[in-house]
Backbone:
């Protein structure tokens, strides 16, 4: 039991491994493609929301344009796999495409972040939104490359690598969840490290750190870049799942999705956004199957959380049953 | 230790400081007094680099720190506690002190260790002991009493191991009993750490009790400096600050 009480990377990695194995077994116990699909999406969207929560929950910066990085990751992966690069790379195409997606999102986040983090509050939020809409416009304008408003059409191959064939449902399921869990464990390490506490310090009191000899701006930029790169990874996994990339992923409404997930799950607990993604996906799948007023139901659920619980579900549960 | 040489600062047409010169001896405890609006906090802001100096120079030892960045000045050896407590509301006392310790050694860039198990734990508990915060070590800062919040603000400054500690009204907002407890604590801190201290205070009993040297500021100018005895007898100070008729 001591092992579980100690807050360290090994424990988190072990828990991650156990969850992954459990979900692999679950795949065979519940052989429903619909459920498997929801689980995959929860992890992908959960990564997206957790990356945004680095900025909102831990740094106190509300970014409205986070989908720019999600779309950048998705389009980079799609374009990479549609290019001639895969002929020479062969079985390494998928890993190379994912790494490229993360790289491009990281570079984009570094560029946008270097400009946006100079601003505070609503000015920061709207500048990130402005950049996102710029990316959206570029995607629409470059029809020859991106497919414009139709998206990246024609699909792309998924060459097997290391014995993993992403064309097979089980392989895809296991791979997506594995990558997501690794990222979540690494993200947990980041949040619980001195770096993560530096983020909390800036969130709590942005004026005091300078009097402690601490450079806020650098810290904020690094956090912004990390958040962008994880959103890019989520986008690349979504593109692999949908075998395409679409301009709506760079539209402002896409940035609202992780925001809703954070509100639903909670921004003050590490896994809150992941729980939010689960609620969001369940609502998405079950509500749309029964009514066309999905937006209305989603709005009512968010309202009930905000007015009733006054926080996200996991935050509420932790306060109610675990913390004082 | 700290030498301020003829500094001037204006805001628009108003001179906030006018040829102010202050020199603090190493390991001394000094007070800066003056009526509201005299420019006391402005001098602290100029020393710490929060606002820029128009004219003049500020030295710490041989280092000219005039108009350096606030972060650079902190690393050279000046730390500050604020008039309005300036802490981290959602972090515990322990976490706040650890953060200040890590900021000093650039440890907050570390992504590979766990904050909870970082090696500065022992040092943090020593600072808590020094400032009398041991009992509330694991309390969330926003839940502390006003006095403990003030002490935490000082503890954050102490964590930087400064050569010069600036305390801006450390007893502001406290009741009489609490004020004297705080002053006793500050005196103890100064005696134990032997750093150079400059504090702003309105309560003359406190100032005369603990300051070795007092600087009196009025409308941005130093009108007198000296030991408590000298200041008590200084006619200019009596007239301008302590209230004309009293002797």
Residues:
């Amino acid at each position: 039991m001591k092992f579980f009480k100690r807050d360290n990377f090994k424990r988190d990695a072990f828990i991650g491994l156990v969850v992954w194995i459990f979900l692999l077994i679950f795949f065979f116990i519940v052989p429903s493609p619909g459920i498997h699909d929801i689980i995959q999406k929860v992890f992908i969207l959960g990564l997206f929301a957790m990356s945004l929560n680095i900025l909102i929950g831990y740094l106190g910066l509300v970014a409205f344009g986070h989908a720019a990085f999600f779309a950048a990751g998705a389009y980079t992966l799609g374009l990479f796999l549609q290019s001639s690069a895969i002929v020479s790379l062969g079985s390494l195409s998928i890993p190379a495409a994912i790494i490229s997606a993360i790289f491009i999102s990281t570079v984009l986040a570094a560029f946008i972040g270097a400009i946006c983090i100079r601003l505070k509050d609503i000015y920061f939020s709207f500048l990130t939104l402005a950049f996102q809409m710029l990316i959206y416009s570029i995607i629409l304008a470059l029809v020859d490359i991106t497919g414009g408003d139709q998206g990246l059409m024609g699909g792309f191959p998924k060459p097997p690598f290391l014995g993993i064939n992403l064309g097979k449902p089980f392989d895809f399921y296991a791979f997506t969840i594995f990558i997501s869990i690794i990222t979540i464990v690494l993200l947990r390490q980041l949040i619980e490290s001195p770096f993560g506490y530096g983020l909390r310090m800036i969130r709590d009191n942005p004026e005091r750190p300078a009097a402690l000899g601490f450079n806020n701006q650098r810290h904020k930029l690094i956090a912004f870049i990390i958040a962008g790169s994880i959103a890019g990874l989520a986008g690349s996994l979504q593109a692999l799942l949908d075998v395409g990339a679409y301009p709506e992923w760079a539209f402002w409404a896409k940035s609202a999705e992780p925001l809703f997930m954070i509100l639903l799950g909670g921004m003050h607990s590490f896994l809150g956004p992941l729980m939010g993604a689960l609620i969001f996906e369940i609502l998405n799948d079950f509500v749309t199957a029964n009514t066309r007023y999905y937006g209305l139901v989603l709005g009512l659920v968010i309202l009930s959380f905000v007015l009733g619980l006054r926080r996200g579900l996991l935050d509420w549960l932790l306060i109610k049953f675990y913390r004082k | 230790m700290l030498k301020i040489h003829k500094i001037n600062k204006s805001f628009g047409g108003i001179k906030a400081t006018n040829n102010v010169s202050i020199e603090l001896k190493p390991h001394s405890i000094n007070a800066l007094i003056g009526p509201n609006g005299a420019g006391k906090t402005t001098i602290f802001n100029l020393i710490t680099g929060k606002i820029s100096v128009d004219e003049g120079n500020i030295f710490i030892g041989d280092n000219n720190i005039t108009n350096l960045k606030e972060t650079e000045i902190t690393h050279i050896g000046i730390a500050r506690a604020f008039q309005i407590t300036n802490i981290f509301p959602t972090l515990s006392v322990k976490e706040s002190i650890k953060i200040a310790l890590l900021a000093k050694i650039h440890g907050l860039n570390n992504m590979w260790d766990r904050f909870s198990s970082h090696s500065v734990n022992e040092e943090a508990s020593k600072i808590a002991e020094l400032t009398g915060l041991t009992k509330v070590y694991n309390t969330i800062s926003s839940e502390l009493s006003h006095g403990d919040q003030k002490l935490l603000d000082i503890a954050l400054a102490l964590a930087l191991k400064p050569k010069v500690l600036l305390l801006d009204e450390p007893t502001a907002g406290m009741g009489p009993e609490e004020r004297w407890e705080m002053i006793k604590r500050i005196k103890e801190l100064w005696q134990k750490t032997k750093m150079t201290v400059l504090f702003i205070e309105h309560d003359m009993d406190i100032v005369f009790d603990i300051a070795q040297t007092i600087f009196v500021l009025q409308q941005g100018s130093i009108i007198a400096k000296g030991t408590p005895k000298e200041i008590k007898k200084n006619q200019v100070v009596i007239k301008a600050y302590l209230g004309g008729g009293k002797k």
Chain A has a mean pLDDT of 91. The CA atoms of residues 202 and 216 of chain A lie 7 Å apart.
